[in-house]
Design brief:
Length: 149
């Protein structure tokens, strides 16, 4: 199977493929910039509050962390180059951030090299990733609940 598909031979019009890749790169750059502008909360959750978002009401209402408790904090640790702390804080958040960064790097390389970025979406086994991601989210939620937030 060939891994190089010139953008003009891809499944989308060349301009749409370029727009998709550029959107992925720009989105990731904005998220990384926002996370670099704040410090990871030492509690293991609550970093999103430094970005102007409200505190999560789930713990008060249900007496336990929410399913995504610590995701922003883990992502923040990762972009601050503390991968172990990111993984310990929230495994799903660390994995999600890492996948996002890798995806942005792939999109950037495809832009520079003239490769069709959309081809990767067609080769991507979305169902496998959704099932694996959901399983990791649930295991991470259990882990955060067991650790007490």
């Amino acid at each position: 199977m060939t891994t190089f598909v010139p953008v003009r031979e891809g499944p989308l019009p060349w301009w749409l493929d370029r727009a998709l890749a550029a959107t992925v790169v720009l989105s990731a750059a904005l998220v990384v910039a926002a996370l670099l502008a704040v410090e990871p909360d030492a509690r293991g959750y609550g970093t999103h509050e430094q970005l102007g978002l409200r505190p999560c009401g789930w713990p008060e209402h249900y007496g336990m962390p929410c399913p995504t408790c610590g995701v922003t904090t883990a992502a923040c640790y990762l972009v601050h180059l503390h991968p172990w702390q990111a993984l310990v804080t929230q495994p799903f958040g660390a994995a999600l951030a890492a996948v996002g960064i890798v995806l942005a790097c792939v999109a950037a390389l495809d832009l520079v090299r003239g490769r069709a970025f959309a081809v990767r979406a067609y080769r991507f086994r979305m169902a496998t990733w959704v099932v694996a991601g959901t399983a990791l989210l649930l295991v991470s939620w259990w882990y955060k609940a067991k650790a007490g937030g």
